[in-house]
Amino acid sequence: MSRKIPPAYRQAGNPPLEKGGEGGFDHQHGERKMIRKAKLSDVKEIQQLIKQYSTRGDILPRSLMELYDHLRDFYVFLQNRKIVGICALHVCWEDLGEIRSLAVQEEARKKGIGVKLVMTCLKEAKALGMERVFALTYRPDFFERLKFKVVDKSVLPHKIWTDCLKCVKFPDCDEVAVVKELD
């Protein structure tokens, strides 16, 4: 039984669909690639990838307890069965979601993995009925290429600042807020 692939999914540059996730086989490089929801067995690998970026102050650190609590938010990008990218869609409110914990292994960067992960999260946000999605980032240019708009952080609800209290830079946050309206 084959699944019908929505044209918008393919137009967004997503990989072909396979059983168990979204992905395909890269014949040029002989690699199997797939995006899927995170599993319990992925948590420690996810935390290691987050640590690579959080120690530099690029993203917030996440404890194992937080990762287990929010596991359903996460997608992983697998390359030859190894996690090389992660991204989470966190539900903030009835119409608002946050893209968070976007990270790609250094050696796998600049290959479109981050874009594919964000597009997968946006697809889920639409399916959930969210009207807009935001991110706090040091890379607004990346999100602007995906049609996010830079906004003043003050337009975001105060509820989203609970995670910011854990940040060493709070209250002098230098991240840029970006928002995408979903249609």
Brief synopsis:
The chain is of the alpha+beta class and about 180 residues long.
Give structural notes.
The protein is of the alpha+beta class and 183 residues long. It has one domain: Gcn5-related N-acetyltransferase (GNAT) (Aminopeptidase). The protein has helices at residues 7-11, 43-54, 64-69, 113-128, 140-144, and strands spanning 17-18, 21-26, 31-37, 74-79, 82-93, 96-104, 132-137, 149-151, 176-181. The chain has a 9-stranded mixed sheet with strand order 1-2-3-4-5-6-7-9-8. The radius of gyration is 16 Å and the shape is globular. The model is unreliable at 14-20 (pLDDT under 50).
Task: Annotate the secondary structure layout.
Layout: H1 7-11, E1 17-18, E2 21-26, E3 31-37, H2 43-54, H3 64-69, E4 74-79, E5 82-93, E6 96-104, H4 113-128, E7 132-137, H5 140-144, E8 149-151, E9 176-181
Parallel strand pairs: 6-7
Antiparallel strand pairs: 1-2, 2-3, 3-4, 4-5, 5-6, 7-9, 8-9
Shape: globular
Sequence of secondary-structure elements: HEEEHHEEEHEHEE
Find the structural class using helix and strand composition.
Answer: alpha+beta
Unreliable stretches covering 5 or more consecutive residues: 14-20
Gap between N and C termini: 30 Å
Beta strands, count: 9
CATH architecture classification name = 3-Layer(aba) Sandwich
Stated plainly, the CATH topology is called Aminopeptidase
Could you give a short account of the major beta sheet?
9 strands, mixed
What value does the average pLDDT take? Answer: 83
List keywords for this structure.
9 strands; 183 residues; alpha+beta; Aminopeptidase; 9-stranded mixed sheet; 5 helices
